[in-house]
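Customer escalation, tier 2.

The customer says the design service returned an amino acid string that "doesn't look like it belongs to this structure." They asked us to rerun it and document both sides in this ticket. The original C-alpha cells are below, unchanged.
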C-alpha cells in the first residue's frame, strides 16, 4: 500500500473504469489515509476512524466496480451487500451482522490462499514422494515378536536380513529410475488411485429469535473428532493428482489458527464493505407500510458503521476501522431521507455522472477488460476473426446512449444487451464461419439494430 500514492491509485482504476474522477479521487484518498494511519503511534492510531463514502449516481456508472477494484488493488477483504435484502421477511433488519461474518470468511480464504502459495515449493516436494509411494510402495517386513525366543529363527536371521537388504536396494534403484521419469514429466498421463477427503460435511443453521442466521456451522468444527473425516478413493492421472495432493500437503503445512487470527486482524484494519442500494432503505419520517421497517434497518446498520464488536464463530471482530462505501441511485429518495445519525457516518459525498456517448465509446475499447476485446477473444476461440471499425464502435455508442435516453437508464450495462443483439447471428453460426474475417462497421451495426431502436415498443423488450 505504501507504494501507491493517490495519483497512482487513480491511474490503476483508470485501466478498468472510464470517467468518474471524483469518486476515484475520494477512494484513493481513503486508501492513502489508511497507510498514513499505520505510521502513527498506537494511541493516536486507535482514535482515527475511516471517513466513509456515499456514492450517488444511476445504475451502471461504475460505483460497485470502483470499490471492487480498489479492494483487489491492495488485497483487502471485500464484500458487497445489498442492504435492501435486510427488509425481507425473516430479516427485518436484525441480521445485519451477517455482513461481518461473511467478510471474515472471505478474509480467511484470502489469507489461506496466500499462506499456501508461500509453502507451494515445499508442498510440491512432498507430493512427489507421495506419488512415488502410490506408484511403487515400499513394503515393510512384519517382524515376529517371538523370534527372540526361537533358536532356529535367530540362526536364519542373518540370511534373511541380507536378502531383505538386497531386495530393498533393488526397489530403491527402481524407484530412483521411476523418479527420474516422473520429474521429466513422462508419466503425467499414467492413472493412479489416490485417497481424498470427502468435501461434503453436514451443515447446521442456527434459528434464533432474530431469524435464521446463515452462520453455516460445520458439524466437523462443532463436534471435532466425533465426526471423523471421510475419505474416498479416486482414480486420476498423475497430472491431476499433483494438484489434488499439492492442496492437501499445503494445508498440512499451514497453521489455520494463525491464518484465522491474521484474517481477523486484516478485516479489522483493512476490510471494505460496499453497501449497495442504500437509497432503498431511505424512507421519509412518519411513513407507513414498508417504510417503517426501512428506518429499523438503518438503526441496525448504524452501530456496525459507527464501530462495534460482532461475534463470529472465529471470535469477536471490531468494526471501528472497516471502510464502508455506500451507494445508491437516489431517484425516489435523497440522502437527507436517511436518519441523521447514519448520514453523519458518511461524511464524504460523491456524485457520479451519467455516461455520455463518448464514455460508451471509451468503455468499448480502452479498459483492459473492454467488452469488444472480450467478444473478439470469444469468437477467435472458434477461429472466427471479427474486427470493429471506428465507425462501427461510434454507432454502437450512439445506439447505447439513445436506448438509455428512450428507456430506463442502466448505464454501461446497456452495452452488454446491444452487443449481444449485434453479434447474435455471428455467435450462432460461428462453427460454420471458421476461418472467416468479419468487419463490424457502421453499416453492419445499423442493419442489425436500427430497426429495433426505431420501434420503441420492440426495443423495450429486446434492448
Amino acid at each position: 500500500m505504501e507504494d501507491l500514492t493517490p495519483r497512482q491509485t487513480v491511474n490503476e482504476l483508470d485501466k478498468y473504469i472510464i470517467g468518474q474522477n471524483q469518486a476515484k479521487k475520494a477512494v484513493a484518498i481513503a486508501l492513502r489515509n489508511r497507510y498514513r494511519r499505520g505510521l502513527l503511534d498506537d494511541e493516536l492510531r486507535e482514535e482515527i476512524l475511516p471517513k466513509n463514502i456515499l456514492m450517488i449516481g444511476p445504475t451502471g456508472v461504475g460505483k460497485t466496480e470502483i470499490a471492487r477494484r480498489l479492494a483487489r488493488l491492495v488485497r483487502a477483504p471485500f464484500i458487497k451487500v445489498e442492504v435492501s435484502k435486510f427488509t425481507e421477511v425473516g430479516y427485518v433488519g436484525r441480521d445485519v451482522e451477517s455482513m461481518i461474518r461473511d467478510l471474515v470468511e472471505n478474509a480467511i480464504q484470502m489469507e489461506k490462499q496466500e499462506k499456501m502459495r508461500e509453502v507451494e515449493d515445499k508442498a510440491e516436494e512432498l507430493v512427489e514422494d507421495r506419488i512415488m509411494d502410490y506408484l511403487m510402495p515400499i513394503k515393510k517386513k512384519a517382524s515376529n515378536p517371538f523370534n527372540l525366543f526361537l533358536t532356529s529363527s535367530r540362526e536364519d536371521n542373518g540370511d534373511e536380513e541380507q536378502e531383505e537388504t538386497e531386495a530393498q536396494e533393488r526397489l530403491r534403484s527402481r524407484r530412483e529410475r521411476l523418479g527420474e521419469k516422473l520429474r521429466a514429466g513422462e508419466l503425467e498421463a499414467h492413472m493412479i488411485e489416490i485417497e481424498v477427503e470427502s468435501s461434503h460435511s453436514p451443515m447446521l443453521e442456527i434459528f434464533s429469535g432474530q431469524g435464521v442466521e446463515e452462520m453455516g456451522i460445520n458439524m466437523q468444527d462443532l463436534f471435532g473428532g466425533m465426526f471423523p473425516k471421510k475419505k474416498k478413493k479416486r482414480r486420476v492421472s498423475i497430472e491431476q493428482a499433483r494438484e489434488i495432493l499439492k492442496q492437501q500437503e499445503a494445508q498440512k503445512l499451514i497453521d489455520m489458527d494463525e491464518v484465522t487470527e491474521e484474517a481477523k486482524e486484516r478485516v479489522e484494519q483493512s476490510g471494505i464493505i460496499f453497501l449497495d442500494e442504500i437509497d432503498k432503505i431511505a424512507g421519509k419520517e412518519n411513513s407507513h407500510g414498508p417504510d417503517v421497517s426501512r428506518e429499523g434497518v438503518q438503526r441496525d446498520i448504524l452501530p456496525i458503521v459507527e464501530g462495534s464488536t460482532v461475534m463470529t464463530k472465529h471470535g469477536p471482530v471490531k468494526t471501528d476501522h472497516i471502510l464502508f462505501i455506500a451507494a445508491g441511485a437516489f431517484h425516489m429518495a435523497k440522502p437527507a431521507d436517511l436518519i441523521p445519525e447514519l448520514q453523519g457516518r458518511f461524511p464524504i459525498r460523491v456524485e457520479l455522472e451519467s455516461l455520455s456517448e463518448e464514455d460508451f465509446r471509451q468503455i468499448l475499447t480502452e479498459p483492459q477488460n473492454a467488452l469488444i476485446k472480450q467478444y473478439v477473444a470469444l469468437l477467435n476461440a472458434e477461429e472466427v476473426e471479427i474486427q470493429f471499425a471506428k465507425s462501427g464502435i461510434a454507432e454502437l455508442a450512439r445506439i447505447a446512449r439513445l436506448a438509455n435516453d428512450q428507456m430506463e437508464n442502466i448505464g454501461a450495462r446497456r452495452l452488454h444487451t446491444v452487443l449481444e443483439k449485434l453479434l447474435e447471428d455471428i455467435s450462432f453460426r460461428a462453427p460454420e464461419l471458421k476461418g472467416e474475417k468479419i468487419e463490424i462497421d457502421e453499416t453492419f451495426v445499423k442493419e442489425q439494430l436500427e430497426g429495433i431502436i426505431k420501434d420503441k415498443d420492440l426495443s423495450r423488450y429486446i434492448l
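Tier 2 assessment: The sequence is consistent with the input. The chain has a mean pLDDT of 81. The longest strand covers residues 211-218. Sent an explanation to the customer and offered a walkthrough call.
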